[in-house]
Amino acid sequence: ITMKNVYLIDIDGVLADYAQAFCKYHNWLLYKKLKSTQLAKLPFNEHLKYDKKLYDCVKYLFRISGGEALSPNLIKESKEFIDKVKKRGDVVIIWTARPTEEFPNLKLQTKIWLRKNKIKYDKLFFVEKGFDKEMFLVNSNLLLKYCLKNKYKIIAVDDRRLSPILNKFIDEIYLFDRNYNKQLKGRRIKSLSQLL
User: Which pLDDT score is estimated for 45?
Assistant: First the structure.
């Protein structure tokens, strides 16, 4: 019997080009010509040399705007990867730390985006109140027990947030290699296809 893998895959930065969508909205709102490749590090406001109030205002407007602003480009290689692992019987859990408590429209927009892009998944987790260890344990306790009981290998992929928190719980953690997360340490990949 081949052991199944459970892939925990973040949306922004892994499935969706968040930086591109944010730059597009930012440029429209502020009449700028910023390119997503210019976002060299986190947090974005420090790199953009904006004071935190202006950046927070742009980010707030971006999140409540709906439509195009919340419909970033699909990273096609990531979808192809998910299609392949689902076909071989692996489990795909999509999760996101989008602040859906503060911005309830994000939950519906996220589901619409996943459906529109025909992303196949077994479970969708919205990690409320940002991402912290306690919330992870509450939201995923059953998932972890199920995976351990069935001897599934758990593999997580994120662009910045998960690695420091999940090391104790996850078999393998990969950091999506982006310009803006170069300062973070971890096993880095350029595309999900590297995991096949």
Answer: 60
Is the distance from CB of 106 to CB of 69 less than 8 angstroms? no
Alpha carbon of 9 to those of 53, 59, 83, 126, 179: distances in Å?
31, 23, 13, 12, 19
pLDDT at 110 over 80: yes
Q: What is the mean pLDDT of the chain?
A: 75
> What is the DSSP secondary-structure string of the chain?
-PPPEEEEEESBTTTB-HHHHHHHHHHHHHT----GGG--SSSHHHHHT--HHHHHHHHHHHHHH-GGGG-PPB-HHHHHHHHHHHHTT-EEEEEE---TTT-THHHHHHHHHHHHTT---SEEEE--SS--HHHHHHHHHHHHHHHHHTTPEEEEEESSSSHHHHTTT-SEEEEE--GGGTTS-S-EESSGGGG-
31 Cβ contact partners less than 8 Å away, ≥ 6 residues apart: none
Mean per-residue pLDDT, 33-55: 66
Tens digits of residue pLDDT in 17-41: 887 888 788 788 878 777 666 564 5
